[in-house]
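step: validate -> pass
step: tokenize input -> pass
step: predict -> running
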Amino acid sequence: MIPVTSSETLGKVLRRYRKDQGLSQSEAGKKFNLPQKTISNIESGLSGTRLGTIFRYMSALGLELHLEPRDKSVKEDEALW
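step: predict -> pass
step: emit ->
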């Protein structure tokens, strides 16, 4: 499992899952009526995307979010974005 601590990391993870499913950005967006540009923004880690939109995209990819406490061995400034 990849720790997601920034919008950039989340975007990379979502891009990998989309590509693993053989979907283009347009195809993935059509599943929940999201424009290709929105998918591109999410995968690029651009801030400003609404959280609800990110959840819609995750749902289109068959993903869900699980949160857990951060490993205490990681220094606070190393894991923050």
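step: describe -> The longest helix spans residues 7-20.
step: cleanup -> pass
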